[in-house]
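The instructor's notes for this session suggest beginning with a concrete chain rather than abstract definitions. Hand out the sequence below and ask the class to guess, before any prediction is shown, which regions might be ordered.
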Amino acid sequence: MDVTNVTADAETFTCNAYLVEGDRTVLVDAGAMEGVVDVIREHTDGLDAVVLTHQHGDHVAQLDAVLDAFDAPLYAYADHPRRASDLDDGEQVFIGDEAFDVVYTPGHADDHVSFVSETTLFSGDVVVHDDGAFDYGSFGRTDMAGQSRERLIESIETLLDRMGDGVEHMYAGHGEEFHGDVRDVVETALGRAEKREPKYPEE
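After discussion, reveal the predicted structure:
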């Protein structure tokens, strides 16, 4: 399974959008980088699906452009005018070469889901390896309208319950990808979130 961050060279704020090539070529989030369609086309002529972790603007601003270019079905937890199939907690979706469990992980966003297989985690914004607040184990912000630190903590606990010990690849919505003991990164993020301290104290 080959994973490429197709927004890695973005000069404006965007999430990490991941092109996953394998038996089923899937884009995880579309991002907000103009020109992302051209980057995807450097790697593949078609997409079997686009799956969303959630529908914040930095994850979906280029969604229509991607769907128009590749005529791919859209999978999302929440309603969307172009959704072809919903993503329900506990079901499976095939990404690349692996079956991923859909884990409902609200807190940062009401419609947030993560995808976990035997080896890999696409965590969206619920947990990230590094960001402007923390390195090695951070979590999505919860200080804006509609967000909840308590729900986020519960979601990280759920994610740990549903994640096996063999998960060694982590692709988050922001920050760098991580290869190693993913459980330890997620547990570190949980510990920080449980302190209930502001993620960005100056805000």
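Then share the key points. The chain has one domain: 2-194. The CA atoms of residues 104 and 113 lie 4 Å apart.
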